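Entry under discussion copied across for reference:
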Amino acid sequence: MNRKWLTLSMAAIVLATSAGCSSGESKDAAQGGSTVGETTGKSTSPIKAKPELKGKIRIGYVGLNDQTAPDPLTGEMVYGADELKKRLKQDYPNIDFEVVTYPYKDHQAKAKALVESRQIDVSIESDSKFMWNQGLSEDLTPFEEKDKEWSKDLYLSPTLLTGPLEVDKDGKTVNNALPIAVDGSGIYFDKTIFADFGVAPLSENPTWDEVLDKAKNLTGKNPKTGEQTYGVYTRIPGDQAGYAVSIIANTFGADMGKMGNKEYLNQVTLNSIGMVKAADYYKSMIPFTPPGMIQGQGAEKWSTPKNNIAMYINLPAIQLQKFKSLKMLDKYDVAMIPKGPQGTGGFLGGIRVQMVKNTQDKELAWEIVKWMSVGNGQRFLWETKNTMPVSTKSLGPDYKPDANDEKMFKMVSQAQYMSPIWFTTAKFALTRGMEKVLLKNTPAQEALDAAQKEVLDEFAKNKAADQK
C-alpha cells in the first residue's frame, strides 16, 4: 500500500487531493509555537535522546528530497534530508548520519537493493509488509519489551501500529515497523453549497443513509448561482474503487480479512453479504456524481472558489490543513467516515520506520527507529510540513492542538486496521469487480463472486510456484 504524500508541493497536493501540511503561519499553535529549524538543544518528547551515543547510522527514506528548497510553483519551502540530519545531529551530536533518498517509483526494488548491499541500517518505507516478507527487516518486539521509554500509549491510536499486518510463518503477529507518518480519511463537504440549497450541514458522524439522502438533495441547479452542482464525488480509477467499497463494507460489518505470512496465505472474502451491500450502495451514489467520475474526471473545481461538488468521500485528514492554509475553512469542513462494529472506519495510510535485518549495531538502530516514531522525529515531520504526527505526546509540552487538529486526529484515531483487501491481488480483483458493477451493470453478487474466484485462483498459483 502506498500513499505518496510526503514531499509534494502544495499545488500538486491540492490538485491531486493527496495529503500535506501547512499552517501558513510562522508560528502556529498547532505546531507548539516552534519555527522550522529552531534548535532547542534538548529533546522535548517523552523519549529522551542520548547525546552520548556514538557510531554511524544510514537511513533509507522513500519520497524525501535531498535538499531543502522552495517549491517552484508555490514558493513554499519543501524540507529535505539536510533538515532531517540537522535535527538528528541536534539530539545525537556524536553519531554520523547518512540519509539515502529515493522516489516512490519502483521503491520496493530500491529498498531491497539498499538493504541487501548493506547501504542502510534503518528504512523508512510505505510497504513494511513487503520488507518483512522479503526477510529484510527485524522484529522489533524484543526491543520494545525491554525499552522502558517506548509504549503503545504514546500513539494516537493502537490502529496506527502494525495491527494484524505482518505475521511469522506460524501466523503469529510480529511488529517489524513503527509508524512515523499517518493519515486517516473523512467525508469533506462544501458548507456554501449546503447553505445555497437550504440543506443542513453534514453531521459530524453521519450514516451512509444521510450521505446518500443529502447527495440526492444537493444534485441539480444551485438555487443561488444557477450552476450545475453534484451531490457527491469519490475516486474510482486505479485501485481507489476497491478502497472505497471496502470502507463502506466495514460499516456494514463485512469480513475485512486476516493476514498471512505470505500474500497467498491471506484470508480474504470479497463476496460477503456486507461487501455486496456496499457495492450496491456505492452504485446507488453514481446518479448524484459528476459525469466522468468513473474515468477519474469531474472534480476539477474541487477546493476552488467555484467548486460544484457538495461532498467528497475518502479524502485524507490532513487535507483540512490545506484548507486552513488556503484560508478556506469558512467554505470547507469534514465529517467522519461511518464506523463499523469494531468502532473503526476510514482509510489508514502512512509511512513506517524499520530496522534493517543485517544492520550491525541493532541497539543504535533501535534508538533512531524510536526517535522517528515517538521522539523528536515527530517534530521534524510536523514542523517541516511533511505530515501529521502519530504521537502528539512527542510534540512536547507546548503543543496545543486547535479544533482543526482535533478533527484530523479523530479521523486518524478511528481509522480501521489495514486489511488484506487493500493489498495487491485482492485490491485489484475488487476494483475489476466494481468496474463490472458500475460500467456493465453486472449484479454485485455475480461480480464479487468472480472477484473472489480470481483471488483464490491467483493465491493457488502463487502457492504452487512457491513450493517448487
